[in-house]
Amino acid sequence: MAREPRRERIFDGSVSRRGSRPGPHRGGRAWSVPRDRRGAVRRGLRSRAGAYGKGLGTHAPHASGLAHRPRGRPGPVARARRYRSVRVPVGFPARARAAGAPADGSQGPLLVAVDLLRRAESRVRTVKQQCPAKINLFLEVTGKRKSGYHTLATLFAKINLYDVLDMEVVNGKEPILEIVDELGTMPLSAGPDNLVLRAARAFYKEFRVGVGVKITLIKRIPMGAGLGGGSSDAAGTLLGLSKLLQINFTAAKRKTLHDIGVKLGADVPFFLKDANFCRATGIGDRLKPIKIEKSLPFMVLVWPGFPSPTGPVFTAIPPRRRSEILTRLSQLDKLIRRLKRGRPVDEWGGLLFNRLEQAELPVMTEVAQARRILESAGVKGVRMSGSGSSVFGFIGSHAEGVRVIRRLQVYPWKVYLTSCHG
Considering the entire predicted model, what is its pTM? Predict the structure, then answer.
């Protein structure tokens, strides 16, 4: 019986058989190399790839920007096309590492060249990233660090209200930000202090990106409302750039992304998590995902139309005894248990809590008024989210939520009928 010719993998994922026509393939995809010369070819390829990859570092993501050079422009990817004509046997990456690639599993120059080719062929030109808002179902302030940050015990929940980031590769080497304000309530700055630009520049620095990206922020989440809109936009920027530049994250790189997020804001790590509910401690950066099987009821969310100053709110809360804080933490445990068991809102609505509602500030008087109006409309579990000024509560059905919203139209508020993720 004739022996089946050996099949070998080439860079673009197609398969060629040994014994194919010698010389360059008419499709420009592969050329045949005699078995006794493959070692020499591989050594030559390593040498050329080493020269090509010089200065790119050992991690493919550091060179990711090169793969997104606009069409028609000469560059490293165009020069690297020559490597398409080299056939690599199945399992060659393992042999390459054995032959001197980094022992820690990172990519050496040859694999960087291969990775760049693959990215150039399948590059993503645009990405749309949704950035959800959040509420705090529970928030207790447990202390204060020397850095000025307060430590918390909180239960985060993502909700179905979003900002949107549209990203596209453009000429240049820097991120560009444009803002579309659909709220039209307050001026938005696209300057260097904007969290989206700060996140993009931190990402560029960490992963050595050298490609232009235009970011369009469609703003729908109210600012200064305790809904985490800015933090969510920052996290969405990090996640969206990862998709656009096709960076495959290892556990170590995810940790790097988390560290970038903490520097941008205490709530950013939550929005980086692939979880709808999280119990958070520390400054909000120590996260434990909470799995809640049953969907929570519809939610009425009210933004009174004015921002709440986060720093002054935290400093204006009255002192508490340690015993009072411990009692509240046991209340949080009870709340989580009932949510996980899928109990009705009547059994856990009274366990919702936000210590910041007790801040002795004029803004809290207006927030308290919004809470009373929602409660009188039949909304359950009414609380302020974060440091305010938005207020939320739960309702039995969509029809009932519509009825409540119509009743609230007499007030100069922004009112949403929404729900938690999941």
Answer: 0.72
Domains of the chain: residue spans and CATH? 7-121 (no CATH), 126-289 (3.30.230.10), 298-418 (3.30.70.890)
pLDDT in tens, 263-307: 999 999 999 999 999 999 999 999 999 999 899 999 999 999 999
Q: Tokens 């235009």 — which residue? A: 214
CA distance 16 to 29: 9
Give strand ranges (E) for 254-374: 277-281, 286-289, 298-303, 353-354
- The 3-state DSSP class for residue 269 equals helix
Report, in angstroms and rounded to the nearest whole number, the Rg of the chain calculated over CA atoms.
Answer: 27
What is the tens place of the pLDDT at every residue in 199-213? 999 999 999 999 999
Which residues are annotated as catalytic?
134, 267
Task: Print burial letters for 387-411: b (CB count within 10 Å at least 16), e (below 16).
Answer: bbbbbbbbbeeeebbeebbeebeee
Give the single-character DSSP code of 325: H
Q: Which two tokens stand for residue 190?
A: 């696209």
202: Cβ–Cβ under 8 A, 6 or more apart, which residues?
260, 263, 264
CB proximity list for 150: less than 8 A, separation 6 or greater: 141, 142, 143, 144, 283, 314
331: nearest Cα among 150, 154, 157: 154
- Concatenated DSSP letters of 4-16: PPPEEEBTTS-EE
* Cβ-Cβ contacts under 8 Å for 374 (sequence gap 6 or more): 300, 302, 382, 391, 393, 404, 408
CB 234 within 8 A of CB 199: yes
Which among 222, 302, 311 has a CA at the least distance from the CA of 266?
311
